[in-house]
């Protein structure tokens, strides 16, 4: 008889729950990375064509706010799903399944590393664009030529730094896909 509580035994032997987590761990990175890629390759270039700096700042800030409202919670859920997979898989009675816990742990670390990356690389750009908008909110409605050039540089910088986030989520998705296939192959 196992020394683990029966509730843990029930969870770790619940292959349906583990299968659902595996599916989420594959599908969510595709959605998150795809949406984030579209922001850099489609939305920001469209914003850059806007002749009004004030409107471009509004569009960027709206895009960032929506990303924070939808993509950030999904990313947090994804990291929690990887962590739950690691926990359940590490306790699985089938050692060919349990051996894969390290990959889920690595994927969790990859996803969690997105937070400091955003704080260091992405959020300062968001804040600077917002500051440009606040400074010119009461003005004549547009930025000076120097500020407009700064805005364009900031938006291009954001495109680049955002792709770093995409790369981390994509890597986690590759880890999930590989781990899932390797788990199936070892059973």
Automatic annotation (TrEMBL):
UniProt GO cellular component terms: membrane
Keyword Membrane: yes
Protein topology in the membrane: Multi-pass membrane protein
Subcellular location: Membrane
Record-annotated membrane-spanning stretches: 20-44, 163-181
Keywords: Membrane, Transmembrane, Transmembrane helix
Family designation: Belongs to the anthrone oxygenase family.
Name under which the protein is recorded: DUF1772-domain-containing protein
């Amino acid at each position: 008889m196992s020394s683990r509580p029966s509730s843990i035994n029930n969870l770790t032997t619940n292959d349906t729950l583990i299968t659902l987590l595996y599916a989420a761990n594959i599908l969510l990175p595709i959605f998150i990375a795809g949406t984030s890629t579209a922001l850099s390759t489609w939305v920001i270039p469209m914003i850059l064509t806007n002749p009004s700096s004030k409107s471009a700042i509004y569009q960027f800030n709206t895009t960032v706010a929506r990303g924070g409202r939808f993509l950030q919670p999904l990313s947090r859920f994804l990291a929690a799903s990887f962590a739950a997979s690691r926990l359940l898989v590490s306790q699985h009675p089938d050692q060919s399944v349990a051996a894969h816990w390290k990959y889920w742990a690595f994927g969790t670390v990859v996803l969690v590393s997105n937070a400091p990356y955003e704080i260091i690389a992405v959020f300062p750009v968001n804040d600077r664009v917002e500051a440009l908008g606040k400074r010119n909110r009461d003005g004549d409605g547009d930025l000076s030529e120097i500020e407009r050039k700064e805005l364009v540089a900031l938006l291009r910088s954001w495109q680049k730094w955002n792709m770093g986030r995409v790369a981390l989520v994509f890597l986690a998705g590759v880890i999930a896909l590989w781990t899932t296939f390797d788990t199936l192959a070892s059973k």
